[in-house]
Amino acid sequence: MSRLIIVSNRVAPISEGGPAAGGLAVGVYDALKETGGMWFGWSGDVLTSGQPQIKVEERGPVTFATIALMRRDYDQYYRGFSNATLWPAFHYRADLLQYDRHDFEGYCRVNAWLAQQLVPLLREDDVIWVHDYHLIPFAQALRAAGVKNRIGFFLHIPFPASQVLLAVPPHRELVEALCSFDLLGFQTAPDLRAFCDYIVNEANGTVDASAQGPLTIHAFGRTLRAAAYPIGVYPDEIAELAKAGERGKPVRTMKATLHSRKLIMSVDRLDYSKGLVERFRAFERLLEHAAAQRNKVSFLQIAPPTRADMHAYQDIRLQLEGESGRINGRFAELDWTPILYIHKQYERSVLAALFRTAHVGYVTPLRDGMNLVAKEYVSAQDPENPGVLVLSRFAGAAQELDGALIVNPVDIDGMAEALARALGMPLAERQARHRDMMVQLRENNVSVWRDNFMRDLQGVAGAKSTRSGKARAVSGKKAARETQAG
Ligand code: ADQ
Fold it and tell me: What does residue 227 show for φ and ψ, rounded to 5 degrees?
């Protein structure tokens, strides 16, 4: 079996059950343990002097190869182009997009440098799987260094509509770089559709849906494949964790704080894409319009700060602190604080147990590639007495979880109504919705995601650069409708 090489911006520090082990880390680490292989990427350290050196660490069949970044590289590649340009643009926040040509040069330079660091560690039959928006030019850089291996790419965040992508000045270079991979994976059919639309209408390429499996893309003189592979979770493991934590201290403390009030719960990284301000206001609207809910329900928002050295993230933090203070000031009573707003990481087992306690999972991002919290919340429920998921239509998860109450995250009244409906939903309806969603989550768990992607990547012919093909060109829209892997 070929060795698997995973490349991601950060190499997740794996401690089984620990706070950093999200879906990506768990799914990818499992794949590595099965096939044996290497995980390569940034160590998280930033150097102000000296020369970064690769650190190689063997843990059983898995090799971790990590390297620090120099301060200038961190500023241009990570804070700059990745997180001040690509992240907002790909989440449809063109208003927050900042662009500096030097940052883009730094982004390409760091991708090329990381690729050069990886090349001496590669073997001829390795299969390389690159993750996420930080590393779009990575295959191009490996190809330039003569690497002929199969290289796949999975985008964890949304792929934006062409009109939004055009706002990123080097959009063409980015899409051309994407076409150096052999297989592109997107979270959902709408993301794949957006990519195909760019290929057909902006890049003068073609999309061929005639073969089985992923679409065949011809563009920029290359042929590659592309499909949607929605990332999943391990629902039964989460359910076990949640059940085991039911009598643990965090849940007991939470229940004691609630008395017999109902609980609405959200967990997010503190990010402007997550729709937190609108979510707080919709909870306020619920209390405003449904006086009977006052002192009968609390809202727990767990949101640890991320990218805290960037202005947009400092702004959202201040804004939320203002909103929660204002709403609590307006409605709180001596024995009741409506919003509990906590800036902390928790163990996965604690989160799962708290999810099981919550009557409503409130997941309303403005845009999200998938949103694993939605899937974790459903998985953690007690099937005999499950809570209700209120879910944004703009989370990738909404493409699958149609047992949720689907909302538009800017419609404050609509969200307040959905919260009221969720809080009052009869048991039989809650059970039926939960059952349907669990079927979906089990069918498409994180192993299925990984295995489908790996099957298709193993199936591609390897590096090709011909303008081949009597391809049947179809519009991106039709093509994406026709094919969705997984
Ligand atoms: P994220 O934007 O980080 O991921 P999400 O999918 O919700 O968003 O994953 C977050 C993970 O971190 C979840 O497993 C969650 O439980 C965990 N987490 C969040 N807050 C936590 C806290 N306070 N303590 C402990 N754990 C916490 C990106 C994309 C998503 C996509 C994923 C995976 O933005 O759209 O779903 O990658 O592809």
Answer: -155, 170
Kindly give the number of the ligand 1 atom that is closest to the alpha carbon of 372.
6
DSSP one-letter string for 17-50: TSTT--HHHHHHHHHHHHH-EEEEEEEEEEESSS
Six-digit token pair at 174? 């980015």
Give the tens place of pLDDT for each residue, 288-305: 999 999 999 999 999 988
Query: Residue 3 has what DSSP assignment?
Result: P
Please tell me whether residue 485 adopts helix, strand or coil conformation: coil
369 CA: nearest ligand 1 atom:
35
Pocket of ligand 1 (CB under 6 A): 19, 22-24, 156-157, 231, 267, 269, 302, 304, 344-346, 351, 368-373, 376
Is the pTM of the predicted complex or chain greater than 0.85?
yes
**Distances from the Cα of 14 to the Cα of 23, 28, 124, 227, 270, angstroms:** 12, 11, 28, 28, 22
**Alpha-carbon gap, residue 301 to 280, rounded angstroms:** 9
pLDDT in tens, 24-82: 677 788 778 888 899 999 999 999 999 999 999 999 999 999 999 999 999 999 999 99
Instruction: Report in angstroms the alpha-carbon separations of 72 from 75, 108, 227.
Output: 5, 13, 35
Rounded Cα gap, residues 218 and 473, in angstroms: 9
